[in-house]
Amino acid sequence: MKELAGRLSALDPDAGAAIQVIAYFDRLVADRAGLEAIVRGAAVLAGCPARLVDADRRVRVRVLADGLRQDAGPPPDPQWPTVPVPGGTARLWLERPGPAGPVGAMVLERAAAAAREVLDRTRGRAPSKGRREDPALVELLLDASAPREARLQAARDLGLAKTAPARAVALEGGEARIVPGSPPADPSGDLGGRRAGIGPAVPVLDLPDSWPPARTALRLAAEGTDQDPGPRVVYADELGGLAVLAAAVGPGSEPPPDVRSLDHAGAAAPWMLPTLHAFAYAPSLRTAAAELTVHHSTLQDRLAHAEHLLGWSVRTPRGRLRLQLAFALRRLHRHPV
Amino acid sequence: MSIDLPATPAPVGPPPPFDSELAAALTLMGEMPAFTLEMLPAMRQGVTLPHEELSRDGAFLVEDRTVPGPAGEPDISLLICRPAEVTTPLPAIYHTHGGGMIIGDNRTGIPDMLDIARELQLVVVSVEYRLAPEHPHPAPVEDCYAGLTWTAEHAEELGIDPDRIVVGGTSAGGGLAAAIALLARDRGGPALIGQLLLCPMLDDRNDTPSALQMAGVGVWDHSANETGWTALLGDRRGGPDVSPYAAPARATDLSGLPPAFIDVGSAETFRDEDVAYASRIWQAGGRAELHVWPGGFHGFDLLAPQAMVSQDAKAARVRWLRRLLDA
Q: Exposed, middle or buried, B106 (CB in 10 Å: 0-12/13-18/19+)?
């Protein structure tokens, strides 16, 4: 019998190798091979260590180029070629400086596709969007008086790990959602573009504590229109003292004079509120002008006009804070609960 | 004694499925043509491992020694690899290489033997025996035996503990290792401490259920096996008068042998003859350790050394040797 050891690691980096990579992973999938076999295939075919990590499912598999499994390893290097495993939060790396090259890229793509099938089959399908939004499950998780076991089961059903952090999300219209706590990716796509307040990241059993801050953050989320400029998604973590301010502004409380002044100014021209908001939060007048796509001298003219209507100078630090607070108070009064 | 087969062989099922990683590794090999003797010259072409590579950066002292062959026959060559940093006598593996009795040289399979030798501090001696069909039985096995007796007699010079010699080999080399263990017993030759028989080729009859089951499948199928045995035995293959030193499965007495380690894949020609050999050693009151690796084709650990089942198979050999040599 001819000795063929090492043949696996001696693939030529040409088109033939890519076809062999496809055949290799197709065969693993057809045979319902496990995750370790898939990661090992990536390591052996690429000739370097490979790792797969799925934080949501608590999966970590790392295999060296000689096929030995060794889960411990250095933190991922940003230089390593990597791809997300489709349909979840898992990610696959080749542990060598990039770029992946044609064969490496094919290894990553095929191994990731194969890993997805195994993850879905053996660790539970990543929760579908519909499931993750199930209002009954979300309500249960946010209810501190519900039994602990029921809440843990709801967390599992929503695809949340017991110990992984999660955040409560308050959506306009009164709807609630749960999103993974980390990474704090921009979830606006998942929230349908609606106004949203996102609570602090907490263990799933503490989610009832994340809900009130989420609702406060929602009150400070803007429509994102000319009449209510500002971000449509607000993180409670970033509110600071505004949370105290929000508690002081309840339903039926009278808007303070600065809010009335802002409304008054806003009625004067359609550009007024977007211009003031951009200036209030931009690092400099020039960046505000660039954001508004007007010349900075035009912006100076507009601010002078605005100051006349408001009754205070917005171009001093003290005046700028007063303007920011006026915007915050205006939103709190527009969304009193 | 022979393997208990019904007079009319029961129909066998389809071949057992290959292990998934091994199957994937096979896809990298592409289509392999059915083996015939015409392919011999091409298959015998190959690079012989040089001393520099065998020394593993100085971990082994490597030499080729020419020593007497069987009485009246040509000299033979032994490859000797000794751990460089140890000066006291060490146990040894006397290695008979694989290659279906028709190909290979005394470097074939040596990298895996050196892996084991490095871990356990062993001397490796590997014999260059004459190949069939140019040199039919008994030339190959007598060359192997001559090298074994020379090694045992020169143990002190080689830094080998003569009481701790294991014979071992893969495939045809496993068959030859089993055969020289029988010869050593029957001729009062060297006292062996063990026999390491890796997917050994033992039975020229080529008619066990696994031999029939694997026809046309895998790395060493029914027809390749027939080609190899016919090269060694000619017309006598499968007949009534085949020597147990050619085909150890023919031995009627398996008592009095050194402890055996036998491994084999569940999806290969040799499965049933190797399982039977272990069973018959036990039935004769001997010691044997048998591993049948699920979904393994012939020589799976050489072709796909990284696969999980290959790692397990190799680790089992080291553990057996460790237990054997610790005692």
A: buried
Residue A57: band (very low, low, confident or very high) from pLDDT cuts 50, 70, 90:
confident
Please report how the helices A296-310 and A272-281 are oriented relative to each other, as an axis angle in degrees rounded to 10: 110
Q: Is the peptide bond before A99 cis (omega within 30 degrees of 0)?
A: yes
Rounded Cα distance, B323 and B120, in Å: 11
Residues of chain A positioned with their CB less than 8 A from the CB of B223: none
CA separation for the pair A93, A21 (Å, rounded) = 16
Total structural domains within chain B: 1
**DSSP structural state of residue B38:** G
* Cβ <8 Å between A1 and B299: yes
Residue A91's nearest CA partner among A60, A128, A129, A124 is A60
User: CATH number, domain at B233?
Assistant: 3.40.50.1820
Q: What's the burial of A334, exposed, middle or buried (CB within 10 Å: 0-12/13-18/19+)?
A: middle
Q: Do residue A8 and residue B306 have CB atoms under 8 angstroms apart? A: yes
B222 with B216: CB under 8 angstroms? yes
Mean predicted lDDT score pLDDT of chain A: 86
For chain A, the residues whose C-beta falls within 8 A of a C-beta of chain B are: 1-9, 11, 20, 23-28, 31-33, 36-37, 40-41, 43-44, 66-68
Please tell me which residue of chain B has the smallest CA distance to A25. B24
Its domain, for residue B242, covers 60-326
- Helix segments in A158-268, DSSP class H: 207-219, 242-248, 257-266
Find out if CATH 3.40.50.20 is the number for domain A249-334: no
Which of A33-47, A152-166, B180-194 is predicted with the least confidence, judged by mean pLDDT?
A152-166
- Each residue's pLDDT tens digit, B128-178: 999 999 999 999 999 999 999 999 999 999 999 999 999 999 999 999 999
- Are B106 and B201 in contact by the 8 Å Cβ rule? The answer is no
Amino acid at the residue A177: R
pLDDT per position as a tens digit, A101-125 = 888 999 999 999 999 989 888 876 6
**Residue ranges in A80-122 assigned as alpha helix (H):** 101-122
What's at A66, amino acid-wise?
A: D
CA–CA dist B205, B172 (Å, integer): 15
A25-to-A34, A111, B102, B297 alpha-carbon distances in Å: 11, 7, 35, 19
User: What is the layout of strands, in order, in the sheet containing A50-54?
Assistant: A59-63, A50-54, A91-94, A82-84
Give the amino acid at A173: G
Query: Using an 8 Å Cβ cutoff, are B126 and B106 in contact?
Result: yes
pLDDT at residue A109, as a whole number: 94
User: Which value does ipTM take for this structure?
Assistant: 0.82
Only one residue has tokens 């290799």, namely: A24
- Return the pLDDT at A125: 60
> Among A176, A180, A212, which residue's Cα sits nearest to residue A194?
A176
Report chain A residues whose CB lies below 8 A from the CB of B103.
2
Residue B209 lies in a domain: yes
Q: Can you give the residue ranges of every domain in chain A?
A: 7-122, 129-236, 249-334
DSSP structure class, residue B69: -
Does the beta-carbon distance from B23 to A67 stay under 8 Å? Answer: no
